[in-house]
Amino acid sequence: MRNFSNKRILLTGASSGIGKELAQALALRGANLILVARSTNKLLELKQTLEEAYAIDCAIYTVDLSKNEDWVKVLEEIKRKYPKIDALINNAGYGLFDQVEDVKTSDVEHMFQVNVFSLIESVKQLLPSFLNARRGHIINVASFAGKIATPKSSVYGATKHAVVGFSNALRLEVEQHGVYVTTVNLGPVRTNFFHIADPSGGYQQNVDRFMIEPSDVVRAIINSLFIRKREINLPRWMELGNRLYHLFPTLSERLLASQFNQK
């Protein structure tokens, strides 16, 4: 089991789903944590659990990432208190599945703020310390929705496409300075993501047999942390589908039309 006892890691979206399981896995391996989420009660409960079970320091910060001014203030406070941070895991994000003509402008703005702008802000704030130390790891959780377009996920897909593009450019800028950038592209994961994205439950039911477990994602991230790795792609069969899609996009859209319209 890898040991991170001398590392401090900032994790957003830490109170549930992949983030919560990732926090537990990192604490098990000795990492000191800075956990960010919207729910104070969930963060307090998680902090108590982790500090009682493992000999680590766990700091928590409650913030709504859709409010950029609040996020900037929290980041400035974190930097003052913890000048040495070894890794940033931008896990927070959400989606809403809807037709373009039905999506609300407010939802478009909210999704971009949480999924893209808050992620860029956290990188901008912490990157100088990584560059000065000539080490650090930035892990940005994206989605296959950012690589393969499907109906009813136009805005969500656009936000994740932005994360992929930002991460790829960032990698080129910082790799010669000892800083790693990894993008995590995921298919459907068995979390509460779909409670918001698809309240009807129809899509989740349709893809249930294809879903991956949060533990699979956590294991892949843990195994790649502080190692130069361009991407984590899960499930792996979707990476094959992604390669075929980019080689033969029109043919893929025709052949996979029924699967693309599962939402």
From TrEMBL:
Coiled coil: none annotated. GO terms for cellular component: membrane. It comes from the Bacteria. PROSITE patterns: ADH_SHORT. Transmembrane segments: none annotated. GO terms for molecular function: oxidoreductase activity. Pfam families: adh_short. Belongs to the short-chain dehydrogenases/reductases (SDR) family. This is Short-subunit dehydrogenase. It comes from Paraliobacillus ryukyuensis.
